[in-house]
Amino acid sequence: MKRHATYALSLLLSFIVTTGFCQVNNPKPKQFSSLPEIINCNEQELSKVFTATPGQTISIAFSNNFTFTGNVTSNLSKYANLQSVVIVSPDYFNTIFSISKATNADGTIAYIGRIINKNYFDGFELKRNLSGSYQLKKIETDRVIPDCSQL
User: Fold this and answer.
1) Is residue 22 part of a domain?
2) 83 within domain boundaries
């Protein structure tokens, strides 16, 4: 009986290894390879996003060599202290820039957002650094967007 179990286990492991090697791994291209890992952002440039209306085309100059131009698809104020805007850029193959503005109890404003496209390896995340300035930091989109096709 133990001999049959050993053969069955060996056969099962062979199938697992074979199917593992049969998986196709097509690496995604990098969309922002020509841009630096960190881009410093201007708060005034970020704030103008929140005055845009759905359907409007807007350009955000993050730096001298990176301007994100796209169509505002939504501008929603969910609560009195939270507003979110989504911009889709045809220039970057329908890459999405999603940004939110939160007004804190003390009246200060905080921004957070992402520039992502599920078809590309890289994107950016908007965060405030320790000195209080906003920066776009490069991210790997597969770590942010789970691949549901393999579930």
Assistant:
1) no
2) yes
Backbone angles phi, psi at 135, to 5 degrees: -140, 145
Best CA proximity match to 115, nearest among 63, 80, 56, 44: 63
Residue 132 lies in a domain: yes
**Which of 75, 44, 73, 76 is CA-nearest to residue 60?**
44
pLDDT digits (tens, 9 = 90+) for 47-91: 999 999 999 999 999 988 899 999 999 999 989 999 999 999 999
Top-confidence residue, 40 or 25: 40
Those residues whose C-beta lies under 8 Å from the C-beta of residue 126, and which sit 6 or more positions away, are: 41, 46, 99, 111, 112, 113, 114, 115, 134, 135, 136
On whether residue 26 sits in a domain, the answer given is: no
0.70 exceeded by the pTM?
yes
Sign (positive/negative) of CA torsion 57, 61, 62, 64? positive
- Domains in the chain: how many in total? 1
Question: Which structural domain range is residue 128 located in?
Answer: 38-150
The length of the chain is: 151
**62-97 core/surface letters (b: 16 or more CB in 10 A; e: else):** beeebebebbbeebeeeeeeebbbbbbbeebeebbb
